[in-house]
Specification:
The structure holds two protein chains of two kinds. By secondary structure, chain A is α+β, with helices and mostly antiparallel strands. In chain A, 30% of the residues lie in helices and 23% in strands. By secondary structure, chain B is an alpha+beta fold. Chain B has two domains: 1-55 and 163-198, no CATH class; 56-161. Classes of the chains: A alpha+beta, B alpha+beta.
């Protein structure tokens, strides 16, 4: 069995200090930048989203998890074994009304009211319309929904990546990128290597692109299934 | 060489003075200490990692250095081993070159300064990463960042650069054999300090003279 595919972020930093003969004096500074690098990777390159069950409350919104920094999808649990993806509707009414000290939705002014779809099945019909909709409100960190009752749905989101209460693990494939990032960032606090900043930034960009290509490149099987899904097979003569 | 052997070496290569005139061993120790500390600093400036070769280990052999909790400051700390004041070196670890858990584990200790310790409590991500303990070398004790109660209960090991005068006479003292830019070696450097100090008459003649009884 080969070595683990996930390592702690601590190990990544220690490995960097070992590999580049760095003094342990700045270990915490390197750790700080390694966390930042991992967070950038999580947000811009990685596919490690968090999929978790959440509940739509009586006011028809979902509170975003505290570590959520990016939204991927809101999914309905179906009985056929597949998720059903919701549709973003940026014009869902997201305001609330206070009655005394109690925050709620006032349907008389449209808050929490059902969307009336322009769904017709006669001449000039506009086709199918998704029954499940959402709108993000990042300021209040809520996802307002439409089409749901108070039910359990699934939220697919990008996490900050750094565990607040446990151990933070990172994929080993990003170790070369973290090394390049730390070598670039140290030029900001080590004066005599400041002139190398631009060259080291390029090294980091190369390391990031390599990983991005690896993550996003389609495999043979994916191409095969894509082609087979859009073609009709006929007899081969 | 042991401490007493080094002292004896220096004493024997000093010029001989008249009967009763000699350097007090405390003067010799301080001169030797000054030179060794200088050599440690020069070694550090040439290659910081190599300084580890000249430390003395405390807390090994089943008797770790105790870690205590300061309830007023709400931080864990260790006192220096009794009678030891580490040689200050110009980096964050200073004379405490390494600290580790009693049994070697994945938990690592890193030197930090007081400023970093203050800032890290408000850091965005860094303070959430566990298994990395910081230590700040202060004038009177070593203070820890992110020390756990479990490690504190067991104690730690530490490698310290010990001043020559704090060694016991029978302790091995490791000296960098490194001539300076003029080719001056360790003993030459010690003699250079002592040559400007005149030896003193050290015969203990302060005793009460015997009472002369006349017959």
């Amino acid at each position: 069995m080969a070595t683990e595919a996930l390592v702690t972020i601590n190990k990544a930093v220690d490995d960097f200090l070992l590999g580049y003969k760095k003094p342990t004096d700045d270990a915490f500074i390197y750790l700080r930048h390694a966390c930042q690098c991992f967070q950038d990777y999580t947000l811009y390159d990685g596919l490690e989203s968090v999929i978790t069950k959440v509940t739509v409350n009586a006011n028809k919104w979902i509170d975003m998890p505290s570590d959520m920094i990016g939204f991927n999808d809101l999914l309905v649990l179906q009985s056929n074994g597949r998720f059903w993806s919701c549709t973003q509707q940026s014009d869902i009414i997201t305001t609330t009304t206070f009655t005394g000290l109690v925050e709620g939705r006032d349907s008389t002014i449209g808050e929490g009211a059902a969307i009336t779809d322009p769904k017709v099945d006669t001449y000039g019909g506009v086709g199918g319309v998704n029954d499940y909709n959402y709108s993000e409100d990042w300021k209040t960190r809520r996802i307002y929904t439409e089409g749901f009752g108070t039910e359990t749905v699934v939220l697919d989101y990008m996490s900050s990546g750094i565990e607040a209460t446990g151990t933070t693990y990172i994929p080993v494939l990003i170790i070369p990128m973290i090394d390049a990032y730390l070598l670039w960032k140290e030029t900001y606090w080590i004066p005599n290597i400041a002139k190398e900043r631009e060259a080291r930034e390029k090294d980091y960009n190369k390391a990031e692109l390599k990983i991005r290509n690896f993550i996003n490149a389609m495999s043979y099987n994916q191409w095969r299934d894509l082609l087979l899904s859009i073609t009709t097979q006929t007899a081969i003569r | 060489m042991t401490k007493q052997e080094i002292r004896s070496l220096v004493k024997n290569i000093l010029p001989k003075f008249s009967q009763g005139s000699e350097y007090h061993s405390e003067v010799l120790d301080r001169a030797i200490e000054k030179v060794i500390s200088q050599l440690y600093t020069e070694t550090f400036l040439r290659d910081p990692h190599s300084l580890q070769r000249y430390v003395k280990r405390y807390g090994g052999g089943g008797t770790p250095v105790a870690v205590s909790y300061d309830g007023n400051a709400t931080i864990y700390y260790s006192n220096y081993p009794t009678g030891i004041n580490p040689i200050p070196i110009p980096d964050k670890a200073s004379g405490v070159r390494r600290i580790s858990t009693k049994a070697q584990t994945g938990t690592t200790f890193y030197p930090m300064d007081q400023r970093e310790m203050d800032l890290i409590y408000n850091s965005i991500n860094t303070s959430s990463v566990n298994n990395k303990i910081g230590y700040v070398v202060t004038q009177d004790r070593i203070e820890y960042y992110a020390m756990t109660a479990a490690i504190a209960a067991v104690g730690v090991r530490m490698d310290i650069l010990v001043p020559f005068s704090d060694y016991a006479d029978t302790d091995q003292v490791l000296i960098p054999e490194m001539p300076d830019s003029d080719g001056t070696s360790f003993t030459d450097m010690v003699l250079k300090i002592l040559v400007v100090i005149q030896p003193q008459e050290t015969t203990d003649d302060n005793l009460t003279p015997p009472i002369e009884v006349k017959q």
